Every structure is written in C-alpha cells, then in structure tokens.
Amino acid sequence: MTTEKTVGGPDLPQERKVVTEIPGPKSQELHARRTAAVASGVGSVLPVYVAAAGGGVVVDVDGNSLIDLASGIAVTSVGNSAPEVVRRVTEQVAAYTHTCFMVAPYEGYVEVCEQLAALTPGDFAKKTALCNSGAEAVENAVKIARVHTGKDAVAVFDHAYHGRTNLTMAMTAKNMPYKNGFGPFAGEVYRAPMSYPFRDGLSGADAAARAIDVLEKQVGAPNLACVVIEPVQGEGGFIVPAEGFLPAIADWCSANDVVFVADEIQSGMCRTGAWFASEHEGVVPDLVTVAKGMAGGLPLAGVVGRAEMMDSVHGGGLGGTYGGNPVACAAALGAMATMKELDLSAAARRIEQTMTDRLRALAEKVPAIGDVRGRGAMMAIELVEPGTTKPDSALAGKISAACHQQGVLTLTCGTYGNVLRFLPPLVMPEHLLDEALGVLEEATLGLV
Ligand SMILES: *Cc1c(COP(=O)(O)O)cnc(C)c1O
After folding, report:
1. Looking at the whole model, is its pTM more than 0.85?
2. Which end of the chain offers a freer environment for a tag, N or C, measured as fewer CB atoms within 10 Å?
3. Pocket mutation for ligand 1, best pick of 138, 156, 278 (most atoms within 8 Å of C-beta)
C-alpha cells in the first residue's frame, strides 16, 4: 500500500471533511497490519491512521479531515508541524542529531533551561534538568526532593496521574488500565484527598484542611520529602480544585520543609491561559515538571526549580542518554517562540470563553451534564445520571464515538471514565472550534 505524502502544518485546508466511513478502508488495512505487529496493550482512541496534521485538523490516509480536540493529549499546542518548529528542527537535524549532553554539550539545551527558568513562576534563581518523558520528569523531581530534604515519603492525591513507570505508577491513582497487574509498586507513596468541587462540595480551605490532616496524621512532615500535585488534574478528570486549595497546600509545604512539586506536564505551557496553571492562584512551586506542550510534539521533558534544590544532587546523579536531545531542544525553542509570538495564553483564554459559553448552554438542555469545568483550552464536561453525581461513563463513550463518526476527535478521561475532555491546539481557527462544538451539541442531544 502506498500512502501519498502530504505536507502538514497550518497551510493544510482548515476544514472538517468526512469522505469515507470512519475508520476508512485504508485505515482499516493499516489497522490489520498493526494488530499483527503492535502489542495489543498499546491502545488507540480512534484508529484512523494519520497522513498529515496542522492548525486545527488531522487528515487521515483516506482523506478524511478531522477537527482536532485532542492535540495528541495536550502536546501540539502550537499545532502540528508548526513552521518555527519545522524550521529549527530541520536545521538541527542537518547539523547534528545527538552527541549526548553528558558527553559533549550544546547550546540548545542551555537555552531551553534559561527560558524555562524565566517562564516558570517565582522570582528566584532556578535551574533545570531535561529528560525524555513526563514520567521521567516526575521521577527526577522525587529524586531531587529526596536528596534535598533527606526524607523519603512522597504524597500524591486522589485522581492523580503522574505516569506509567514503576515509581509513577505508584503515584498514579487509577488502577485500570495504568496499574492493574503491574505491581509491586514503589514504596513510601501516600495518597491524600483531592479537592473535587463537583463531588465533595468543599471550599478550598476545608478540602486543604482535610488533605493536610492526612499528611500530618498518616505520613508526618518529618518523613515527607515532597507533595506532588497537578494544579489542574489531567487524566483524572480535568478537576480544578476549589479556590484556595492549592495555595493552602503550598503554604503548608513551605512551613514544614516539604518540597512542593507542581506537575504541570499537561497544564503547563500556555494550555490553561497562562504559562503555568499555578499562576492562576499565585502559587509558586519549588519544583515544576514540564513535558507535553513544550516541544511541539518531539519528546522532551524537564524539572525546573529552585537552584539550591536542583543543585543538591551529586554530580552525575541526573541525566540519561537522550535527555535534552538537540533536535527536541530545537523543537522546544521553536514552540516557545511561537507561543510568545502568537500569544497562545491569550488564545487559550479565548477558547475557554467560547467553550464555556457553549458548554454551559448545552448543560442547560442536558441534565446528564453534571459539571462544566476547566481552564483555558483544557475544558471538560462530566456526565452523570441526571440529578445525581452517579457517573455515566457509557454516555461519555457514546458521545465521543458519535463525534468521531462526524469528524471530530474527542477524548474521555476521569477516574470513572465519564468525563469528555477538550484539548484543542491553541492555534485552532475559531470557525473550526465553532463547528466542532456544533457537532458535539448535536451528538449529545441525539443521545440523551
Ligand atoms: C502525561 C502526564 C504525565 C506522564 O507523561 P509521559 O510523557 O506520558 O510520561 C505525567 N503527569 C501528568 C500530569 C501528565 O498529564
């Protein structure tokens, strides 16, 4: 089978176009090959095989053009094949592809670290270590916090998602599919209750008091190296904690020699309408983990934080063969330049406005929509049995599948699998966002 080469990027026609069944015949052919060759534990939300992507669309091998409300899970915030990413990556690939920063260093890595220090919250000296994936960044944050404090315990929250490596599986809350059968897990990981306004109805102060009580009574500050928290939870259900919750947890950490780690892997890099979601409540983390949106789709992640904490680790204690690969760093510099030039935080706030208005109007008509929430271009609806908080994951799945059939790429999430989440690229053209919301409205009204 030959697949026509198609150039992606923002010049792709910005349209929704469904020309075959979804998935179409060519995708189905590829899927048969995939089923024979790829481990079945690796899933795909929608098995349409990609030919090109850019702006707000993903074009498949059958010529269908889907509106992208996923961004490859909050990664292609600057759009696929963004021009400045393509230009810098192309130049870098032609110059050299890898030397290993631990063998012979290069400027791109240093520049990414300089920029992250400037962009993350906090007016103090910061340093950064780069790595390949979000999970690896979280692991490194824990390593750093343990060495810095000389303590072992790690606290995380209900509904948390921090990755799929051994330590981060222990930190992730949800059993299926992330943990089931994969133990034993790393020790000294403790879980505190999260603020989840739709389900607990608590104020931020009360939810924080409840969490701090667990930390004090069940772990003890003298044993606790760090608290790791997503300022807006991602896979767990796009949960925005009640106002005051994050600052109270951060204050408790600083009063108790506990490192406060904000896992901004999904919420960072303009996604929520600010460089980092911590900023919405003026929270200044000690360490910040970054990945997903930072490099326009190339694998790059990092831990950024207080210089004295980052530097507490012995020489050679951090690193890895590919961490901060020069091509990935070139992509990150291109992505960050694009975020600044196009003011993608403002774009995320515009997306929030449009989506909030439309989703709230839909919720008025659909009692199964129990909650509309999110920040910036990280928005969600939670589906429940009308008049209750009882999760309706079947309905979330059906709405999502109906959107797929109509050429809109949506994702679900949540501990109960009942949350439909929307993560458009921040460069999404307004007319496509409107059209995608129209499809979502029609799909929802047709199913309830
Ligand atoms: C995706 C994600 C991770 C894990 O990142 P990977 O690159 O998949 O390892 C960790 N934390 C959060 C909040 C995430 O959204």
Report:
1. yes
2. N
3. 138
Beta sheet of 287-290, edge-to-edge order: 126-131, 301-306, 287-290, 259-263, 224-229, 153-157, 189-192
Tokens of 83: 């021009």
Tell me how far the alpha carbon of residue 230 lies from the centroid of ligand 1, in angstroms: 10
Q: Which domains does the chain have, with CATH numbers?
A: 4-68+343-445 (3.90.1150.10), 83-342 (3.40.640.10)
Q: Residue whose CA is closest, atom 10 of ligand 1?
A: 162
Which token pair is 249?
Answer: 């947890």
- The alpha carbon of 411 and the centre of ligand 1 are apart by a number of angstroms equal to 16
**Residue 400 token pair:** 């999502």
